[in-house]
Prior knowledge:
The protein is mainly alpha-helical. It has helices spanning 12-26, 28-51, 54-68, 71-86, 90-120, 122-137, 144-151, 155-179, 183-191, 196-225, 227-230, 238-248, 251-281. The protein has a single domain, classed as MetI-like (MetI-like fold). It is built from 13 helices and no strands. Helix 3 (54-68) packs across helix 13 and helix 5 (90-120) packs across helix 8 (155-179).
Amino acid sequence: MYDFPEIWRLELGVYIDIFIDWLKTNYGTFFDVINDVILWSMVYVEKFLQWLPWWFVVAIVFILGWRLKNLFSGLVFALLIFIVGTFGLWDLMMSTLTIVLASVIISLLIGIPIGIFMTNSSHLDAIIKPILDGMQTMPSFVYLIPAVILFALGKVPAVFATTIYALPPVIRLTNLGIRQVPKEMVEAAESFGSSRWQLLTKVQLPQALPTIMAGINQTTMMALAMVVISSMIGAKGLGMEVLIAINRLDIARGFESGLSIVFLAIIIDRISQYIANRFETS
């Protein structure tokens, strides 16, 4: 009497499983092509990042911090990334950065157009917003399951899962930024005969750019937060070091790799914030 009736049980997961199997059976070749293209791109990006001299990367980070904020910020950023190198984790940091860059770029290519389309359709906005709520509240481990089924193990499923996890902020803030453009400005542009494309590219997007940049910042940080979790499906990098440290109860290894992720997150977060602030004041 106190137990929930079994007859009312809804096995929704079974239908999701059937849908994933259907995708794999009917569009397996399509996913194989995506896997090959993304993997090929990531291999060359990672090789390029690891080819760069360590002192050159430190110098670039210093210059970015200095020119975007001040000399002190540049020195702090250079010191932080130098410390990661002293831990012996330089190459793994570049592997992590490759996954983050790939995930963020894909998220922007998908998220910004969706955010723009949402501003033009209230029905689409009403449909996508609950989906974004679900994507942000869903445990991140769940994204690993379809990623592994569709792309097996390795870097590509890690990028797939990370992209889904990091996608909502850029969609939300692109939509919000364009909607916050003053109506008077839009009406003035329309009265001068601007087409919809001209209105978007010359008025709405420039005015919404600070908000969109904030969305890019949040998407980047969420992608970096997914690094440790994505290591569970074969993504090499700093996250893998944390996972190995957990399995071996290696405190020193876990501390150094975890601290390296923190340092990388600080640098990426501050630099992207400084860039966003530059757009806001310009």
